[in-house]
Specification:
By secondary structure, the protein is mainly beta. Helix content is 6%, strand content 59%. A hairpin with a 2-residue loop joins β2 and β3.
Length: 174
């Protein structure tokens, strides 16, 4: 299965394509298209002993974090991972999630119809707070604030059809 991993550690944040394949001799993990065979064995306490074909070994201990992230201690290093399936990674890229810090645009990740607008100009919002509800494929989907801020403007109205990547509202720093 292919994933997009956002990795944040001491050397900064980066995005990596990850593909995991199981076979009778172990696990093959490809990072950005470079495959490596790993032997992964569970250890007491919820960790894993990881041995690569090149002889490098590490102990990895995962801890669930907030917002779908996992904090992992690998040896002395600590990293935060967010694994996204390919579809979710593409939707976030279209919506601009995580690709900016200065932009205040909140965009639709998928095409749909605006059911409800939960905020108005001047409202303060917190990161992760639902701001718009979209209907797509007969399901309601919350669009959440990507960061804390104040609503500068609402660019859509209830009942309006929107496309993937369309600006729903503009957010300015708190």
């Amino acid at each position: 299965m292919k994933y997009r991993a956002k990795v944040a550690g001491p050397s900064g944040e980066r995005s990596v394509e990850v593909e995991v394949q199981l076979d009778p001799t172990g696990v093959v993990v490809s990072l950005d298209g470079r495959p490596a065979r790993w032997d992964i064995v569970p250890t007491p306490g919820g960790g894993y002993s990881v041995l690569r074909a090149d002889g490098r070994q590490a102990e990895a201990v995962p801890h669930p974090g907030g917002n779908g992230t996992v904090r992992v201690r690998v040896g002395a290093e600590r990293v935060t991972l967010e694994l996204l399936d390919e579809l979710t990674a593409r939707a976030q890229a279209v919506a601009g999630k995580g690709a900016y810090r200065g932009s205040g645009d909140v965009k639709a990740a998928i095409p749909g119809r605006v059911l409800r607008i939960l905020v108005g100009p001047g409202d303060s919002v917190l990161q992760g707070q639902p701001v718009v509800v979209l209907e797509a494929m007969k399901m309601e989907n919350d669009v959440r604030a990507p960061r804390d801020g104040v609503i500068r403007s609402v660019e859509v109205s209830a009942g309006q059809a929107v496309g993937a990547g369309q600006i729903l509202l503009r957010l300015e720093p708190a």
